[in-house]
Amino acid sequence: LLVRHKSSIAVDLKSHGGIALVQSILSHVDVLLDPFRPGVLETLSLSPDSLLERNPRLIIARLTGFRRDGPYASMAGHDINYLAVSGILSQLGRSNELPYAPANILADFAGGGLMCAFGVLLALIERTASGKGQVVENNMVDGVNYLGSMMRFARKTIFWDRSRGENLLDGGCPWYDVYECKDGSYMAVGALEPQFFRRLLHGLGLPVEDTLSRRDDRAAWAEIRELLRRRFLEKPRKDWEEIFADTDACSSVNSKAPATSKDFQPIYSDRLGLTLELIKAGRALA
User: Fold this and answer.
1) According to the model, what pLDDT value does residue 256 have?
2) Are 133 and 58 in contact (CB under 8 A)?
3) How many whole angstroms separate alpha carbon 232 and alpha carbon 151?
4) What is the rounded CA–CA span in Å between residue 15 and residue 20?
5) CA angle 55-60-61, nearest 5°?
6) Which end of the chain is more exposed for a tag (fewer CB within 10 A), N or C?
């Protein structure tokens, strides 16, 4: 899915011809992404030192799941494992429920891919001054740890000093949560500031001053949540969308975005077949 519309080749890295092909390509490219476990490139005679000898301007981005040292270095893993080791997973999810991993967004894409891309961009900028490439080390555990910096620091404040699912931004607060509508769809509420909360209550037709006065009393949060839950269930999402349109109630639709046949179509390329044939024939690519 992520390589659609991109030219690609398949190379047998266990063959001398495959290694020779990669070495010839790397002699004139800008960036190499190493997605393997620690030590794999070295066993293929493609160590960073040897590659930089051939191409001193090459930027080698090494992206692993776990750190390159330590007890997990050689182990397989996936997004949920990296989240768990980082400690971030323990802070995600509802109160009194199991920790919840939000698909594979945080470690794979944000802490891994995005942080790696950021490192590559910095290396490219540095190369404009030095003329030299470098190795950019990335791992998803440290990357997602960095993304969770605010969450960790906030644990020393009233914003995140309680258990999972009992804080302001993790589902514990009734005016920062998702509510079901009459038609089974959902509205997202993020009315953190008092003025936004006031407009939310006004749109819902709930007692404004009385509810607003109890907003800072955590003992009243369960009751306020129930008020919001019941009121959202009285109308379909379309009605709530119209009520909150052009307002600062911080209440928005929870949109569904399924992949349709129009959005996603498989891409078939004759060039890919030609490329593979060239590799099989041992010919260098133009």
Assistant:
1) 76
2) yes
3) 29
4) 9
5) 165
6) C
Here the tokens at position 51 are 């590659």
Q: What is the pLDDT of residues 47-97, one digit of tens each?
A: 999 999 999 999 999 999 999 988 999 999 999 999 999 999 999 999 999
Distance between CA 257 and CA 40 in Å, rounded? 39
End-to-end alpha carbon distance in the chain: 26
* Phi, psi of 272, rounded to the nearest 5 degrees: -60, -45
With a CB cutoff of 8 Å and minimum separation 6, the contacts of 119 are 61, 136, 138
Please give the share of the chain, as a percent, with pLDDT higher than 90. 80
CA neighbor of 192 nearest in space, from 214, 169, 211: 169
Among the options 34, 79, 108, 142, which is catalytic? 108
Closest CA to 247 of 180, 173, 191: 191
Q: Strand, helix or coil at 135?
A: strand
